[in-house]
Write a structure and sequence with these properties.
Elements: H1 2-49, H2 66-73, H3 78-90, H4 107-110
Length: 124
């Protein structure tokens, strides 16, 4: 009788664990289907109204990344990385050049380039 109860208990635990796994999988599948449906409706609405479809992204600032955190503390990149980060923190904020097509993104580096002939970018 004791052997039968052990056998029954093992199979009941297996069945309960299988049911828990199935419920978990189906709930994740339902959430994924709801998100896909919301995204599809959002995309359809954007197409109908003539607006661009904006992707869903997680907002993250570059200053809050793990690498910059370790570089500032000196633990990840060593002493030179923390000095370079300190020099970047003291640099002037980004100011785009007036009338520039690139918005002044590479203006500081462009003055140092000597082996390239600059040319005007033509948009089609």
């Amino acid at each position: 009788m004791n052997e039968f109860l052990n056998w029954m208990t093992r199979w009941m635990v297996r069945i309960v664990m299988l049911a828990i796994g199935a419920v978990f999988f189906l709930s994740l599948l339902a959430v994924a289907c709801v998100l896909a449906a919301v995204w599809a409706v959002r995309m359809l609405w954007a197409k109908l109204t003539g607006q661009p479809v904006i992707p869903w992204v997680m907002p993250m600032r570059a200053a809050s990344s793990w690498a910059s955190m370790y570089q500032r503390s000196g633990g990840f990149g060593g002493g030179m990385a923390s000095t370079a980060t300190a020099a970047q923190d003291n640099a002037a904020p980004f100011t785009p050049a007036a009338g520039s097509k690139r918005g002044g993104i590479l203006s500081a580096v462009a003055a140092e380039v000597s082996d390239v002939q600059p040319r005007e970018v033509h948009e089609r």
